[in-house]
Q: What sequence folds into this?
C-alpha cells in the first residue's frame, strides 16, 4: 500500500514540484519491505541495478554511477541565503532567488518518462526530541532504496509529521546526469534542498550531508544544539561501564573503521569492547545532567569499500554479507564483489566499475594499472547489521559524550594524541584541523587542506559564526566533553607510517577515556597535554620505544610554521572569526617561544 498524508502544505508542494519536473506518475512510499522488493525488481529489469549472487550475498544488489559522477562535487554545492556573508567564504553562495531560478531551468521536465517517488524520512529515531523529518522527491529507485537503509523511512514519518508538522523539502532529479548542469543547492532559510543532475550518494541521499549536516548545522545554531561530522562509539570497560566518545575526521580517514574497531588482544583480554552508535554524523544536545548527549541521525552506513578488509574492519566485512547495495566496486564473474584492499586476491577476471572487462593486468593508455573498483566506491548497509552495533543506537535520548576526538591525516607535526586544556582551546584545536585531500572529493589528492572539525564541506553557514557557535555551546554545557586530537598518520624519515592504526587505535582511546575518568596524568606541553610514553599500553605491539617517543614528540619550529598557516587561514575566513580564536593562537605562539 502506498504512503498517505493529510498534510496540505506537503501535498501542495509535491504538486508544485511535479508541475515543474513533469513526471509520468507520482508514488508515495510507505517504506515497507514489499515496496522495496517491488522497486528492486523494477530497477533490475531496467538495468539501474544488477542482481548479485543471492546464495552468497542474499539481498544484495549492485549499481554503477555515471563515469563523471563518483564523488561529492563541492564546487557545484551551494548555500543560498539572502545575505552573502551568512554563507561564505567557505561555501559557494548564490542568492535564494538566483539559486532557485538557475535550478528551475534544470528541473523543468527533468522527470518526463519517469516516476516521481515521494520518500518520507526521519533523521534520528521517529518521535525522538532530536528527530528532524524530511520528504525527498526523487526520480531514482537507487535513491529510494538507499534512503530506506540510511534513514528511518516510510508511513511512520508521514504520521509523525501529521497535518501540520514541519519537514525539510528535498527535491532530487537525476535529470540527464549532466555535469555542466549539476547543482546541489541548500536554502536553509526555506528548509529546502534541491539536487539535480547527479546520482552519487553524497549528492543525492539528501538526508545525509545536505540535511543532517548543512541544514542541521544551521538549525542547530538557531536552536542551540550541534550537528557534527562525527562518529559515535562506546568503549565498554572491564567493569561493564560504557564511556562514549564522538570523533571527527575528514572524509575517508578511517572514520568508519574506528567506529567499529576490535580492540587488540591485550586490551580485549583486559575486558575492553567497542560498541558502534554511528559512523559519520552526530547530533548533540545538552541534557538535563549538564552533559552533551548524542544521537546518530542515520540508520545505515554509506562506507568506502576500497581498503575495507578483515584486517582493517572485520565488523564491516561481516555486515556487508547481506541486504547491502554496492556501488562502483568490481563485479566478479560469480556475481559477488571485490575491491582493492579486499582480503581475497584480485579475481582473474571481472567487470570493473566502468562496466568494462577487467583483469589484474588491465592497464590504461599510459601503461598504468587500472583499478577494478572506483577509489570512492561504496556499500550502503543497515547499521543494525554491524555485529558490534550499540544497543543504544535507537535510544531517542542518545548517549552521553565524555570526549570529542579530532583527527586528520598529517605526515608530520601532530603527535599521536594530545588533549586540549579546556573547551575554548579545544575549539581552537578543532578549528585548526587540517588533512591531506582524499578520494571522496574531486581535486588533487595529497594536497593539505584546512578542514575545521572536518566540517569545511558541511557547515551550512559562515565558518566564523560556526566557531562562535562552538564557543557559545561551551558556555551552556556544565560538564563538557574533554577534547583531544589524534594523528594515526605520522610518518618517519623514510616516509613510513609509525603507528599501526586500525584496532591498535584502541590503545589511544584507552588513554583518552582514562583522562576523562581522571585515571591517568599527562605531560603539559605548549600544544596541550601529551601522554607519558609508558601510559599508552603497547603490550603485544612490536613498536620500539624510540618510535613511541617520536610519535609523541613536538617540534616547536614546525608548530611555529603551523601557527603562521593558521593565522592566514583565520584571516581568510573574514571578520566573523571570534577574537577568542586569535587569542588562542597568540597564546600558543607565546607558549612555543618559552
Ligand atoms: C562521506 C564523506 O561520504 O564524508 O561520509 O564524504
Ligand atoms: Mn562523512
A:
Amino acid at each position: 500500500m502506498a504512503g498517505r498524508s493529510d498534510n496540505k502544505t506537503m501535498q501542495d508542494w509535491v504538486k508544485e514540484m511535479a508541475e515543474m519536473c513533469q513526471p509520468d506518475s507520482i508514488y508515495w512510499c510507505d517504506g515497507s519491505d514489499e515496496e522495496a522488493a517491488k522497486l528492486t525488481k523494477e530497477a533490475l529489469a531496467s538495468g539501474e541495478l544488477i542482481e548479485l549472487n543471492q546464495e552468497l550475498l542474499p539481498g544484495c544488489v549492485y549499481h554503477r554511477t555515471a563515469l563523471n559522477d563518483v564523488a561529492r562535487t563541492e564546487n557545484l554545492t551551494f548555500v543560498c541565503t539572502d545575505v552573502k556573508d551568512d554563507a561564505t567564504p567557505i561555501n559557494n553562495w548564490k542568492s535564494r532567488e538566483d539559486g532557485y531560478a538557475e535550478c528551475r531551468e534544470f528541473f523543468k521536465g527533468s522527470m518526463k518518462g519517469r516516476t516521481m517517488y515521494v520518500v518520507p524520512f526521519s533523521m534520528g529515531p521517529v518521535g525522538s526530541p532530536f528527530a528532524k523529518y524530511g520528504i525527498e522527491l526523487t526520480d531514482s529507485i537507487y535513491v529510494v532504496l538507499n534512503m530506506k537503509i540510511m534513514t528511518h523511512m516510510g508511513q511512520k514519518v508521514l504520521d509523525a509529521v501529521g497535518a501540520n508538522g514541519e519537514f525539510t523539502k528535498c527535491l532530487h532529479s537525476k535529470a540527464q546526469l549532466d555535469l555542466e548542469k549539476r547543482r546541489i543547492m541548500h536554502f536553509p532559510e526555506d528548509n529546502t534542498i534541491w539536487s539535480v543532475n547527479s546520482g552519487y550518494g553524497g549528492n543525492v541521499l539528501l538526508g545525509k550531508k545536505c540535511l543532517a549536516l548543512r541544514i542541521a548545522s544551521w538549525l542547530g545554531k538557531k536552536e542551540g544544539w550541534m550537528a557534527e561530522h562525527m562518529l559515535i562509539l562506546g568503549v565498554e570497560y572491564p567493569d561493564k561501564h560504557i564511556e562514549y566518545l564522538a570523533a571527527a575526521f575528514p572524509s575517508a580517514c578511517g572514520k568508519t573503521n574506528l567506529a567499529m574497531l576490535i580492540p587488540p588482544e591485550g586490551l580485549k583480554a583486559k575486558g575492553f569492547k567497542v560498541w558502534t552508535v554511528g559512523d559519520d554524523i552526530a547530533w548533540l544536545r545538552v541534557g538535563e545532567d549538564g552533559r552533551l548527549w548524542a544521537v546518530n541521525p542515520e540508520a545505515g552506513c554509506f562506507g568506502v569499500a576500497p581498503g575495507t578488509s578483515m584486517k582493517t574492519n572485520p565488523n564491516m566485512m561481516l555486515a556487508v554479507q547481506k541486504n547491502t547495495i554496492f556501488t562502483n566496486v568490481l563485479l566478479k564473474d560469480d556475481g559477488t564483489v571485490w575491491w582493492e584492499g579486499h582480503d581475497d586476491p584480485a579475481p582473474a577476471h571481472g567487470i570493473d566499475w566502468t562496466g568494462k572487462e577487467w583483469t589484474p593486468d588491465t592497464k590504461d593508455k599510459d601503461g598504468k594499472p587500472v583499478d577494478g573498483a572506483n577509489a570512492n566506491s561504496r556499500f550502503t548497509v543497515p547499521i543494525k547489521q554491524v555485529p558490534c552495533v550499540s544497543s543504544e543506537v535507537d535510544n531517542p535520548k542518545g548517549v552521553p559524550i565524555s570526549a570529542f576526538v579530532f583527527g586528520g591525516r598529517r605526515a608530520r607535526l601532530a603527535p599521536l594524541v594530545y588533549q586540549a586544556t579546556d573547551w575554548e582551546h579545544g575549539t581552537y584545536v578543532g578549528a585548526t584541523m587540517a588533512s591531506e585531500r582524499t578520494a571522496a572529493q574531486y581535486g588533487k589528492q595529497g594536497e593539505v587542506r584546512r578542514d575545521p572539525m572536518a566540517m569545511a564541506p558541511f557547515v551550512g553557514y559562515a565558518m566564523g559564526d560556526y566557531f562562535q557557535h562552538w564557543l557559545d555551546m561551551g558556555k551552556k554545557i556544565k560538564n563538557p566533553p574533554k577534547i583531544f586530537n589524534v594523528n594515526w598518520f605520522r610518518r618517519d624519515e623514510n616516509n613510513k607510517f609509525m603507528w599501526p592504526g586500525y584496532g591498535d587505535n584502541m590503545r589511544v582511546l584507552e588513554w583518552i577515556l582514562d583522562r576523562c575518568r581522571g585515571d591517568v596524568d599527562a605531560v603539559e606541553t605548549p600544544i596541550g597535554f601529551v601522554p607519558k610514553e609508558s601510559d599508552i599500553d603497547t603490550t603485544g605491539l612490536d613498536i620500539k620505544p624510540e618510535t613511541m617517543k617520536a610519535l609523541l614528540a613536538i617540534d616547536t619550529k614546525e608548530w611555529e610554521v603551523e601557527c603562521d598557516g593558521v593565522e592566514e587561514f583565520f584571516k581568510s575566513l573574514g571578520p566573523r572569526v571570534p577574537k577568542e580564536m586569535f587569542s588562542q593562537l597568540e597564546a600558543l605562539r607565546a607558549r612555543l617561544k618559552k
Remarks:
- The mean pLDDT is 95.
